[in-house]
Amino acid sequence: MGPPIPYGLTRASWRRGMRDLDDAGRLLALPNPPVNFILLLYAELISMYTIHLPRRARKHYLAGDPPFLNDFSRDEVHQLFGFRTHAQLRRVMIALGVPAIIRTRERYVYPGESAFLLMLVRLRDGRRWSQLERIFHRDGTHLSAINLYMVEWLYTNHSLPRLSNMAWVKARMPLYAQCIVAKLKSIYPQDKWNLIPIDIWSFIDGTIRPCAKPSSRSFPGLNLQVDLYSGYKKIHGVKYQSLHTCDGLCAHMYGGMGARRHDTSLLRLSNVMSILFNMFLPGDMIYRIMGDPAYARTWLTCTGFKGNNLSDNETTFNKMMSSVRIAVEWGFKDINCTWRWLNDKHRNKLGETPLRKHYMNATFLSNLIVCVTGGTQTSAFFECEPPTLQEYLLMTNP
Questions:
Q1: What's the rounded Cα separation, in Å, for the pair 9 and 29?
Q2: Is-contact 128 141, C-beta < 8 A?
Q3: Residue 272 confidence (pLDDT)
Q4: Residue 71 DSSP code
Q5: At 17, is the secondary structure helix, strand, or coil?
Q6: How far apart are CA 67 and CA 173, in angstroms?
Q7: Number of CB atoms found within 10 A of residue 216's CB
Q8: CB atoms within 10 A of CB 198
Q9: Cβ atoms within 10 A of the Cβ of 305, count?
Q10: pLDDT confidence of residue 224
Q11: What is the Cα–Cα distance from 38 to 16, expressed in whole angstroms?
């Protein structure tokens, strides 16, 4: 096989050096070898190899004892993992059934508690593996495989089935509608109360998470640069759609589509309307979702009035609903601020990073934080108490 080609040296130059080495070997076999000329050939070869040194293999980190939750202080728990206290995070891990030991397909064995903490800190601030080596006492290659295992475990067992299940919201729709009506009545005078809708239970909207510009050479035959580009936001990204309720929870999440997709396309592909249609029985009170004017007005969706020649009542209605529909933007804000890895578009690369799984996991974890902390800005605004952790996991169990 021969020695490796030095980094930065062309293959032609390296072959010329190898020929010089062969010539020196043949000259040494002569009865009276020209020593000076042979030394000159060797000196040329050595200088060529030392100037263009090959890439040094990175030294592997020596394995040590993995850290557990009790090894971190309270401030570190909040800064690294996003939860306020040890007790809250411990309750979440027990409720989710984090395995005691995990074994990746690369046959890396690691404690499940430490692997769950690794996934949280990676999603929390996106530290590099070289920085996490000093915390979790494993090589970066091992940590990457362990993190991907936990991301897949959380997505398959909890995030995807629970954020796709909407059967539990029917029992809480009257509570959500009452909180929205009460908030509007506290803001606007009594002579405007007749304009307040009494059947709005959640707010729907789409969001774009930026990602790196995909290379056309990495995906031959696919024009992903066009599919992921949003002409409105002027960025490449992936689009998601969510339903946020007034207790700070995300009731439904769908996405992973190209940023060029319209909000109505995601609504159609998510089958949210079909799910809500099959949820109501004859004689039931029909509750609707509130969206921006990009959505169509139907018997299951409510939007603001469009046009320039609006009446006073229509203008007041639009102003009313805009003051409460901002809650869906607060939900997106909580997710993006808590899990800052989602904001690093240069490291979120299609085909290299599970973008959809990361965002779904971040949304589900944000729901768990809402339940264990007792609320967020949204729940305080509407004065709507979220369910407890056990109630939420029981309701969303598919």
A1: 29
A2: no
A3: 93
A4: G
A5: helix
A6: 43
A7: 12
A8: 12
A9: 14
A10: 84
A11: 15
At 1 the pLDDT is 44
Whether 134 contacts 145, CB under 8 Å: no
Distance of CA 395 to the CA centre of its chain: 24
Nearest Cα neighbor of 160 from 398, 387, 368 is: 398
Tokens, residue 302:
């409510």
Q: Report residues of the chain scoring pLDDT below 50.
A: 1, 51-57
Say if CB 370 and CB 396 are below 8 A apart: no
Q: What integer pLDDT is reported at residue 44 of this predicted model?
A: 66
* Pairwise CA distance, residues 42 & 48, whole Å: 10
The pLDDT value given to residue 309 = 87
Q: Which amino acid is residue 305, in one-letter code?
A: F
Strand partners, 109: 103
**Which residues touch 19 (CB under 8 Å, ≥6 apart)?**
none
* Residues of the chain by 3-state class (helix, strand, coil), percent to 5: 55, 10, 35
The total of other beta-carbon atoms located within 10 Å of residue 148's CB is 17
d(CA 41, CA 236): 54
Residue with tokens 């609320």: 375
Query: At residue 225, what are phi and psi to the nearest 5 degrees?
Result: -65, -30
Alpha helices in the chain, H assignment, sequence order: 11-28, 35-51, 74-76, 86-96, 112-125, 129-136, 140-154, 160-164, 173-187, 224-227, 263-270, 272-279, 312-325, 327-338, 355-373, 377-382, 389-395
Taken as a whole, the chain contains a residue count of 398
H or E element in which residue 239 lies:
strand 235-244
User: Residue 40 has what pLDDT?
Assistant: 67
- Alpha carbon separation from 367 to 91, 328, 376 (Å, rounded): 14, 14, 10
The confidence score (pLDDT) of residue 56 equals: 47
Residue 233 corresponds to which tokens in the numbers above?
């936001």
Alpha carbons 286 and 299: distance in angstroms, whole number: 8
- Assigned token pair, 230: 């949003």
Per-residue pLDDT of 155-172, as tens digits, reads 999 999 999 999 999 999
